[in-house]
Write a structure and sequence with these properties.
GO biological process, one term: aerobic respiration
Largest sheet: 4 strands, mixed
Number of strands: 8
Strand order of the largest sheet: 2-1-6-5
Strand content: under 5%
InterPro entries: Cyt_c_oxase-like_su1_sf (IPR036927), Cyt_C_Oxase_1 (IPR000883), Hemerythrin-like (IPR012312), NorB_cytochrome_c-like (IPR054309), RIC_family (IPR019903), ScdA-like_N_sf (IPR038062)
Distance between the termini: 28 Å
Subcellular location: Cytoplasm
Structural class: mainly alpha
Keywords: Cytoplasm, Iron, Membrane, Metal-binding, Transmembrane, Transmembrane helix
Shape: elongated
GO molecular function, one term: metal ion binding
Radius of gyration: 36 Å
C-alpha cells in the first residue's frame, strides 16, 4: 500500500514538474526574445557615412560593413578580439585602437599647448587634457536623422595615423616584424591596401562604440568597456549594483536548494540487479555502426590536441613552430579555428552517436532504412568536417572574396566559424539525426510504457539540439556586430551549454535506469527538476555574455541576475560525484562500468571547478568588466568544455562500447592511464599556466587598463613567457591521455567482434540444455547440426546427455562451441530479450512469409527434376512427396498459429501491460494448441531429416544440371529457415507463453475472466 502511495505522490510531483518546465521555457524565451528585439533597436548604429568637421566623407557605412567582412575573412575573432570576444595572443583591437587614439590626440594637445609630449607635462596639465580628450571622444556626434557620424579634426588625424599603423602591421612593413611575431600575425595577412582601408573603417566604428556615450546616458554603448582611465572608461554604478545582486541571489538560492535537498531526504536506494540488464539487450544493425563514429571521435580528439599544441606554441613563437615557418601555410588563426571547432565536432559526435545507439535499443529493432540513415549521416559528418576546415583555410589565406568567404570560408565568429553553406549542411544533418531518433522512439512513447516521460524529455532535448543550431543562420553577411553576437551566443550558450546539458542529463539518467540503478519515475522527476533549475538560470543567463557587446543596461541586469542561478545546482555537485562513485561499487557486475562511471565522477568534479568556480569568477559584471578577453576566459573554457562536456563525451562513448563489447575484457591499464592523464594534465594546464597568467592580466587590467593587459609588452614579459612554457607540463600529460583514449578505442574495436548475446561459460556448458544454448547464440546450431544433434524437437536434452547417447567426445564438442561463442558476428540477434508480441510478429512476417514465398518455387523445381532426372535418380520422387506433404502441413500449421495462438499471445502481452482482465480463449489453456503444434514440428523435422538423407545432405550429383543445383540449394536454405522457425517457437515463444499464462492464473488481479 505504501508503495502505491509513493507512486501516486511521484506522479503528482511529476505533473507539477512538467508544468514548471513549460512555464520556465515559455517565460524565459519570451523575455529573451523581447530583449533581443531591444538589442536590435539599441545596438550601436552604423552610419551611412562618416564625415569630418569640414563635411568631407572619410568613409561610408558600406566601408564599415565590408571592413567587418574583411576582418572576418582573416579569422575575425580568431585574430585578437573585438569587444573582448575572440583570441588572446593578439590585442583586443578596440582596446588597442582606443588607447593609441587617446595617446595620439593627447600628444597633439600637449604639443599644441606646451610643445611637449603628454608624458612630459605636469600632472595638473595632464588632468586638464584628459578632460578635454574625454569630451572629444565621449560626445555622441551621430545624427540619427541624416544617419551621419561627424568626427573632429583630432579624431580624423588619429584615424589616418592609426590606419597607417595597422596597415604596416597587417601587410609587410619590416618595422612590424617583431610585433607581428608577438601577435602571431603572418606578413601580408591583408593583401591589398583597399581591403586594409575598409578594415580600418570597421576598427574605428567598433572602437567608437566603446567610448561614445549612448544618447541621454553617461555610459558608452559597451558600458564603458574596455577599461581605460585616460578616456573615462571606468566601471559604472550599475556594474557594482548588479554584481552585488548576483552574489546575494547566489547565496540565497544556494541556501534554498540545500534546504530543499535536505528536506527531500536521501534518494531511494534500490537493490541493483543480480546481473547486467544490458546483456539481455539485442544489438541492431544500425547500433553496430556506431563504432565507426567513435573512430572519428578518437581521431578528431588527437588532431584537436595536436592543433592545440601548435596554437599554444604560437603564444611564445608567433611566426613558426620551433623555427619552422609554419605560419606561412598554417597561421595561428587557422590552427585556433580548427582547434576550437574540432572540440565542438568530436564532443557533439560522441553525444549524438550515443543517441543513435540508445534510440533503437529502446525500440528493440531498427525502423526501415535506419541503417542507411546512420551510414548517410556518417558520410555527411565527414564531408562537413573536412569541407568546412578546408574552406576556412581558403578564407584565411585570402583565396576567396568576401561573399565566397561568407558562404564557404570563415565567418570569423568564435565557435561558429564555418561558412554559411557548411552551417546549413550541418543543420540538415542535425535534423536527419533527429529523424533517426524520433522514428524508433515515437512508437515506444505511444505504447505508454513506464519510460514514456523520460523518453519524451529525451526527444525534447534532441529536438532542441537540432532546432537551436538554426540560430546560427539568423545573422547575415553584414549584420551589425552587436546583433550577430546576440545570435552567436544563442548557439554557443543555449545550444552547446544549454540543451546539450539537458540531453546529457537525460542520457545519464536513462542509462542508470536501464542498468537497474534508478527507478524510472525517480529518474524522470530528477531530470525534470534539474532541467528546471538549470534552464531558469541558463536561458536568460545567455545575457551575461553580452554585457559589453553594444547592448542596453537591462541586458546586464538580467544577465547578472539569472546567470548566478546557473552556479546554484553546482553547489551540490559533490553529492552527485559521491553518488556516482557509490554506484560503481554497488555490485560486482558494475565493476565492468567502472571507467565510464569514473568519467561521470570527473564530469561532476570539473562541473564544480571549471564551470562553477572558474565560471563564477568571471561572471559578475564588475569581474567580467576587468577580465573579459583575458586568460581567465580560456581557463574557464578549457576546464568547462573539455572537463565537463569532453569527459562526458568520453564517458558516454565508454558506456556504449561496454554495451557493444559485452564479454570482452578491457585493457584496464590503458584506461587508468587515460583517466588520470586527462584529469591531471587538464588541472596542471589550468593551475600552472592559465590561472596565474589570467590573474596577472586581471591585476594589470584594473591598474593600467585592458589595452595593457593584452599588450605585447606584458604578454612577452620574460616571466609571462615562462608561465606560458609551464603549460607544456600539463599539455604533455594531457596528450598522453588523448593518445591512449584513441589507442583504447581502436584496439578494442579492431581486435574484437561485437557480442550481441550472452554466452554460456564453458564450465557450465555440459549441464546446459541444447535448445537453451541455441537460444542464446543461434550460430551454435551449425555445430549441433554437424553432429546430428536435434536442437529443436529434442532441445531439452543437455549437452552431456546427447554426447553420452551419441558417443560424442564432450570436450571436443565444447571446444567447437567455444570457438563459435568467442567469435560472434554482427548478425547475432538476442531473441530471448524480445517481447512475445514482437516475436510473434517477427515469426509471422519473416518465417511464415518465407515459407509461403518459397513453397511454389520449390514445388516447381522438384516436379521438373522428377520429370527430367527421376529415372536416373529415383530418390527425387520420394523427396518431392515428402516436401509436398511438408508444404501442405505447414500451410495448415501457419494458419492455425496466425488465427488461434498468436492472437491470444499478443492479447496476453497487451493486457498484462494494461493491467486488465483477460478473456478465457475457446480452446482453454495455451498448452492445448502448443502441444499439438510441437507434435507437428516433430513431424516436419523428421520429414526434412529424411529429405537430407535422401539428398546426401543436399549435395547434388556430379551430373546435376543448374536446376538441380538451385533446387538443392533452396531446399538447404528452406531447412535452415524452418529449423530457426521451429527453434524460436519451441524454445522461446511457447515456453514463455505458458509461463505468462501460469503467472496470470496465479494473480487474482489479472486472472482470466470467463465472463469477460
Amino acid at each position: 500500500m505504501s508503495e502505491f502511495i509513493n507512486e501516486h505522490i511521484l506522479m503528482k510531483r511529476e505533473r507539477k514538474l512538467w508544468l514548471g518546465f513549460a512555464a520556465v521555457i515559455l517565460l524565459s524565451f519570451g523575455i529573451l526574445g523581447y530583449y533581443g528585439f531591444e538589442i536590435y533597436q539599441e545596438s550601436p548604429p552604423i552610419p551611412e557615412k562618416v564625415i569630418s568637421a569640414d563635411n568631407e566623407v572619410v568613409f561610408t557605412g558600406n566601408d564599415i560593413k565590408e571592413g567587418q567582412n574583411i576582418w572576418q575573412s582573416i579569422g575575425g575573432q580568431e585574430v585578437g578580439s573585438i569587444w573582448g570576444h575572440g583570441a588572446y595572443v593578439a590585442p583586443d583591437w578596440t582596446a588597442d585602437w582606443l588607447h593609441r587614439e587617446a595617446i595620439f590626440i593627447l600628444n597633439g594637445y600637449a604639443q599644441s599647448d606646451f610643445k611637449k609630449n603628454y608624458e612630459e607635462i605636469t600632472k595638473e596639465q595632464q588632468a586638464a587634457l584628459k578632460v578635454r580628450l574625454q569630451k572629444n571622444l565621449r560626445t555622441n556626434t551621430f545624427d540619427k536623422e541624416s544617419n551621419t557620424l561627424t568626427i573632429t579634426e583630432e579624431r580624423l588625424a588619429a584615424f589616418h595615423y592609426l590606419s597607417n599603423y595597422y596597415k604596416g602591421l597587417f601587410t609587410d612593413n619590416p618595422n612590424f616584424d617583431k610585433l607581428r611575431s608577438d601577435y602571431a600575425i603572418p606578413k601580408n595577412t591583408i593583401k591589398s591596401e583597399a581591403r586594409m582601408q575598409k578594415m580600418n573603417a570597421f576598427f574605428f566604428w567598433a572602437t567608437w562604440a566603446t567610448v561614445t556615450e549612448r544618447p541621454g546616458e553617461a555610459v558608452s554603448y559597451t558600458h564603458n568597456w574596455p577599461s581605460d582611465k585616460l578616456v573615462g572608461n571606468t566601471p559604472t554604478t550599475s556594474l557594482y549594483t548588479w554584481s552585488g545582486v548576483s552574489i546575494i541571489l547566489l547565496i540565497l538560492c544556494i541556501g534554498i536548494l540545500v534546504f530543499y535537498h535536505v528536506r527531500s531526504g536521501e534518494e531511494e536506494n534500490i537493490p541493483p540487479p543480480s546481473e547486467d540488464p544490458l546483456l539481455k539487450q539485442g544489438i541492431t544493425p544500425s547500433m553496430h555502426l556506431i563504432k565507426k563514429y567513435f573512430w572519428v571521435v578518437s581521431l578528431l580528439m588527437v588532431v584537436q590536441m595536436l592543433l592545440g599544441i601548435v596554437t599554444a606554441h604560437y603564444g611564445v613563437e608567433g611566426d613558426g613552430f620551433y623555427r619552422i615557418p609554419l605560419d606561412q601555410i598554417l597561421p595561428y588563426s587557422v590552427t585556433r579555428t580548427w582547434h576550437t571547432q574540432l572540440a565542438i565536432f568530436w564532443i557533439a559526435t560522441a553525444w549524438l552517436a550515443t543517441g543513435l545507439y540508445i534510440a533503437p535499443a529502446v525500440f528493440g529493432k531498427d525502423p526501415k532504412f535506419q541503417k542507411f540513415g546512420v551510414n548517410f549521416l556518417f558520410v555527411a559528418l565527414l564531408i562537413i568536417v573536412v569541407g568546412s576546415m578546408f574552406g576556412q583555410w581558403l578564407g584565411v589565406m585570402q583565396k576567396l572574396d568576401v561573399i565566397e568567404n561568407f558562404w564557404f570560408g570563415h565567418q570569423g565568429y568564435e565557435y561558429v566559424d564555418l561558412g554559411r553553406f557548411w552551417q546549413i549542411f550541418l543543420l540538415v544533418g542535425l535534423f536527419l539525426w533527429l529523424a533517426l531518433m524520433v522514428r524508433p522512439l515515437l512508437p515506444v512513447i505511444k505504447k505508454k510504457t513506464a519510460e514514456k516521460n523520460l523518453i519524451i524529455m529525451f526527444l525534447i532535448s534532441c529536438t532542441a539540439i537540432a532546432l537551436f543550431y538554426a540560430a546560427g543562420l539568423m545573422w547575415g553577411r553584414q549584420t551589425n556586430l552587436a546583433i550577430a553576437e546576440y545570435w552567436r551566443w544563442w548557439v554557443v550558450h543555449l545550444w552547446v551549454e544549454g540543451f546539450f546539458e539537458v540531453f546529457a542529463t537525460v542520457v545519464i539518467a536513462f542509462l542508470f535506469v536501464r542498468l537497474g540503478l534508478l527507478k524510472t519515475k525517480t529518474a524522470t522527476a530528477n531530470v525534470l527538476f534539474t532541467t528546471i533549475i538549470f534552464m531558469t538560470g541558463g536561458i536568460l543567463g545567455t545575457f551575461h555574455h553580452l554585457y559589453f557587446s553594444g547592448t542596453p543596461t537591462a541586458i546586464m541586469a538580467l544577465g547578472a541576475t539569472f546567470s548566478a542561478l546557473e552556479i546554484v545546482p553546482l553547489t551540490l555537485i559533490g553529492y552527485e560525484a559521491y553518488h556516482n562513485y557509490k554506484l560503481s561499487k554497488a555490485t560486482k557486475w558494475l565493476e565492468e562500468y567502472k571507467w565510464p562511471i569514473y568519467f561521470m565522477v570527473a564530469v561532476a568534479f570539473w562541473n564544480f571547478l571549471g564551470a562553477g568556480i572558474f565560471g563564477f569568477i568571471i561572471n559578475p559584471p564588475i569581474a567580467l568588466y576587468y577580465v573579459q578577453g583575458l586568460n581567465t576566459t580560456p581557463l574557464h573554457g578549457h576546464t568547462a568544455l573539455f572537463g565537463v562536456y569532453g569527459m562526458l563525451g568520453i564517458g558516454l562513448m565508454l558506456f556504449v562500447l561496454r554495451s557493444l563489447y559485452r564479454n570482452v575484457s578491457w585493457n584496464e591499464k590503458i584506461l587508468k592511464i587515460t583517466f588520470w592523464s586527462l584529469n591531471i594534465g587538464l588541472l596542471a594546464m589550468a593551475l600552472l599556466s592559465l590561472l596565474p597568467i589570467g590573474i596577472w592580466q586581471a591585476l594589470e587590467s584594473m591598474e593600467q587598463g585592458m589595452w595593457y593587459a593584452r599588450s605585447a609588452e606584458l604578454m612577452q614579459h620574460p616571466t609571462m613567457v615562462i608561465l606560458k612554457w609551464m603549460r607544456s607540463i600539463g599539455d604533455i600529460i594531457f596528450a598522453v591521455g588523448i593518445v591512449t583514449t584513441c589507442w583504447f578505442v581502436f584496439d578494442l574495436t579492431l581486435k574484437n567482434k561485437i557480442v550481441g548475446l550472452v554466452t554460456v561459460r564453458l564450465e557450465t556448458q555440459g549441464k546446459t540444455q541444447v535448445g537453451q544454448l541455441v537460444a542464446q547464440n543461434y550460430r551454435t546450431a551449425a555445430i549441433f547440426s554437424k553432429y546430428d544433434i536435434d536442437f529443436c524437437c529434442k532441445g531439452e536434452k543437455t549437452i552431456d546427455e546427447v554426447c553420452l547417447k551419441k558417443g560424442i567426445d564432450t570436450e571436443h564438442l565444447q571446444e567447437r562451441l567455444n570457438e563459435v561463442l568467442n567469435t560472434t558476428d554482427s548478425q547475432d540477434i538476442d531473441y530471448q530479450s524480445w517481447s512475445l508480441y514482437l516475436l510473434a510478429n517477427h515469426i509471422e512476417n519473416t518465417h511464415h512469409q518465407y515459407v509461403r514465398r518459397n513453397i511454389p518455387t520449390l514445388l516447381k523445381y522438384l516436379n521438373k527434376l522428377c520429370n527430367v532426372h527421376g529415372r536416373r535418380h529415383s530418390e527425387l520422387y520420394e523427396i518431392n512427396d515428402l516436401f509436398k506433404e511438408t508444404a501442405t502441413h505447414l500451410k495448415h500449421h501457419m494458419a492455425m498459429e496466425e488465427t488461434i495462438l498468436f492472437p491470444i499471445v499478443r492479447k496476453m502481452t497487451k493486457n498484462i501491460e494494461a493491467d486488465i482482465n483477460l478473456a478465457l480463449p475457446n480452446f482453454g489453456n495455451v498448452d492445448n494448441p502448443i502441444s499439438k503444434m510441437m507434435q507437428e514440428h516433430d513431424n516436419e523435422g523428421e520429414n526434412f531429416k529424411k529429405i537430407a538423407t535422401l539428398s546426401n545432405n543436399f549435395t547434388p550429383p556430379k551430373d546435376a544440371c543448374t536446376t538441380y543445383k538451385v533446387a538443392f540449394s533452396l531446399l538447404k536454405e528452406f531447412e535452415a529457415d524452418l529449423l530457426l522457425h521451429i527453434h524460436l517457437e519451441n524454445t522461446i515463444l511457447f515456453p514463455k507463453a505458458i509461463a505468462i499464462e501460469k503467472g496470470i492464473v496465479g494473480n487474482e488481479n489479472l486472472a482470466f475472466n470467463s465472463n469477460n
